[in-house]
């Protein structure tokens, strides 16, 4: 073989070997990538349009065999959607198991002509919130109406109704999916807002009550509702995924904060009822309510509440041998913990409602025209839930009676406005906590006084009273005789008037 032939043969071997090496490395890289993506779901390997079509077909097939709670015979093409959420329980001791409902559940429902839809949005692939479930229910109703001669969809979630008629960017994959379905509609389909939890007999109000009933009662079904498809086809180009938690959209710092809180509670179950101040707004509280004597009582309440030393019925029953009941002294079927007294006891519902109304009036006077409407709605929502458990609080439970307020950094308020609102919240919290605990101590004093034995009604017999009368007569007679037997020199003279001055 000539030199040229030998050279070409060697070049061919090198080229073939290089191709094999590159193919082997590329195969390994693709295999590793598939293994990573497979944990988030194999549908990520498919085209987004194909996944969307499959998800919509799945939603349309789910209502074929609905539970009995969604069957309604309606003459008009009307629909209603709603969502329901059971937050995870925060146990301060050993975990308890309630077989009647899952520890955490997020469901949605659609009620329409002669059929309905009930699904679950609790999934390890996506960190869904209550707002996502409301949007998912609305898009399911729109999709179902588009395939059945159109109609009107009633939703009690006002933000999604306003968002559909605006040009605001979609905050989540569910919103992008809803906007895409709503833009593709070809029939007379509209989304209308309806007030929730009313006693009206109108058709929209009755539909809303039916949807709310379906969503809230499917948490404890014997056969759990099917899972709602995850809209991975409308995720952002770059989205955070955490194994065991799923895709995370929105405020990632709030998610980190929540995970740190859950980790702390899981590793310190005996102290999970205590609260870290770093989870809440760091703005210093106002000095006037704490340094003035009329409100100093509330500062003492906060001190004992933060150290888990507030003498509630549950604490006294756990530390003392007998004589104290752990149940709520106002008749609630619950343990009397500080959190129950300040946030859940029905006896103080009037105080909490009055305090919330006064706070909203004060907030409306503080907010000026420079605050954006979205920020204003967020502040109103936070103020309305300041004295109740909600997702606005880092741990899902209010801590107003400890002197904490929810964080406000994500609203990007001006510094002066931020401080003003925090001081407004602190003052309202101090007033409410002081009034609730004062009435609690008053009730404890009334129960203690009622438990004391009544004074004895025993009377001295008549014969003993006669004997005491005779003895007292003889004693007075003896004393008078003894006085007469004393000489005059031993008797002290009675005081007389002052002698006149002889010189006058």
TrEMBL record:
InterPro entries, per the entry: RNaseH-like_sf, RNaseH_sf
GO molecular function, one term: nucleic acid binding
Domain of life: Eukaryota
Protein name: Uncharacterized protein
Organism expressing this protein natively: Tricholomella constricta
